[in-house]
Write a structure and sequence with these properties.
Number of domains of chain B: 1
Largest sheet of chain B: 3 strands, antiparallel
CATH topology of chain B: Ribosomal Protein L9, domain 1
Oligomer: heterodimer
Radius of gyration of chain A: 24 Å
Number of helices of chain A: 7
Strand content of chain B: 5-15%
Shape of chain A: flat
Largest sheet of chain A: 3 strands, antiparallel
Radius of gyration of chain B: 26 Å
Helix content of chain A: 40-55%
Strand order of the largest sheet of chain B: 4-1-5
Number of strands of chain B: 5
Shape of chain B: elongated
Chain lengths: ~160, ~210
């Protein structure tokens, strides 16, 4: 979250560095604190602007959300109340609904190497989801194929060092 | 958040599900004489040669490994029964056939340890594999229907099938719940209530300080 910068209008009076009305990019946590103290107002970040929304509406599954914001959903939930934009919440839900199906089908079927290109457009949250499914599918397959049923504890079979 | 929690990927590993399945009762035909066994989970035996007796799967496997019995495969593990099941699964895409809760684990244990006790083992094995594949595919199509927070009801899923999709399903439902929740709008309201406050000089204890 610390890398997510947003533009603020600074209304610091008498501050030598930042003039009132200037646009500054700040980490979200700082912007939030300043906002709560009425020091700044926050603009909608670029990853939730109209252009991105149109792209998502056109073809949600192929929009590269990771390059826009690796924590798209989480950030969206946090920023929505601050910028006072009620449509962000709905947009997050519909985006997730559309992308969910793609993750579902790819996660349980496609081999990992094949999916690597698909993985690059996923946000961190979506990647977690995908990897959870992949991992559970892989452990199931491993169990099904079999192999050694018992693992030998690493301490066993180690030769004791001769005492000098 | 869409599946951001650090909770363990899956509550049970396949091995653990198999372990639970080993409590299922199996019929065995011993070839030795033995007194009853008294376990916490119950009493089994006495054992007489050629007299069928029901024991937990783990005990059946243990006896089988020592050559003390033959295992009678369960009723549902016959070619006719499985063929019927497979047809049912293929015909009815909407619902699942009622299969034994631990069919995947039981069949694997029996294939591993008692192959000579199962008639038509190759046929049985490929039928069970087909059934499993058809069902797993069906689970996936069922999951595609998720679109928002809603009650989910899928009848007749088996233990292993649930376990395979659990990490994904739990996380996606969490994400759907989060984004389909009026809490976000409620936050927004409380936030606008806070706005009219004048700048307060004191910083809360847990807030990050900035100068």
């Amino acid at each position: 979250m610390f890398n997510d910068c947003i533009i603020i209008y600074s209304i610091f009076g008498g501050c030598s560095q930042v003039e009132e009305g200037a646009k500054v990019e700040l980490p979200f946590w700082l912007a939030q604190e300043l906002y709560l103290r009425q020091a700044v107002s926050i603009n909608v970040p670029a990853c939730f602007n109209q252009k991105t929304r149109r792209e998502i509406q056109a073809d949600a599954a192929n929009v590269d959300l990771r390059s826009r914001c690796p924590y798209f959903y989480e950030f969206g939930c946090k920023i929505a109340p601050l910028v006072g934009d009620r449509t962000i919440g709905k947009m997050l839900l519909s985006t997730f609904q559309m992308r969910y199906k793609d993750i579902l089908t790819k996660a349980h079927t496609v081999a990992y190497a094949m999916a690597s290109k698909f993985l690059t457009v996923l946000t961190k949250e979506e990647t977690n989801l995908y990897e959870a499914a992949q991992l559970s599918m892989a452990t199931f397959k491993k169990w099904r194929i079999g192999g050694p049923r018992f693992q030998r504890a690493s301490v066993l079979g180690r030769k004791r060092k001769p005492i000098e | 958040m869409a599946g951001q929690s650090d909770s363990p990927i899956s509550l049970f590993s396949p091995e653990e599900v198999e372990f639970i399945a080993e409590d299922e009762l199996m019929e065995i035909v011993p070839n030795m004489r033995m007194d009853p066994l008294n376990f916490i989970c119950g009493d089994f035996g006495p054992f007489f040669p050629q007299i069928p007796v029901k024991v937990p799967l783990w005990l059946a496997v243990a006896l089988k490994k020592r050559g003390k019995c033959t295992i009678r495969p369960p009723q549902w593990m016959s070619v006719e029964n499985l063929t019927q099941l497979l047809e049912g699964e293929r015909e009815d895409q909407g619902t699942f056939q009622a299969v034994p809760f631990h069919y995947i684990e039981i069949s694997r244990l029996l294939f591993d340890h008692a192959r000579e006790d199962i008639p038509d083992i190759y046929m049985v094995r490929s039928l069970i594999e087909d059934i499993r594949d058809v069902r797993l595919h069906k689970v996936e199509t069922n999951l595609e229907k998720f679109s928002a927070t809603s009650a989910v009801k899928i009848a007749h899923l088996s233990a292993m099938e649930v376990n395979v999709v659990r990490p994904f399903v739990v996380r996606s439902l969490q994400a759907f719940y989060k984004h389909d929740n009026p809490v976000v709008t409620a936050d927004l309201d409380s936030m606008s209530n806070r706005q009219p406050q004048v700048r307060q000089p004191q910083v809360p204890n847990n807030a990050r300080r900035f100068e």
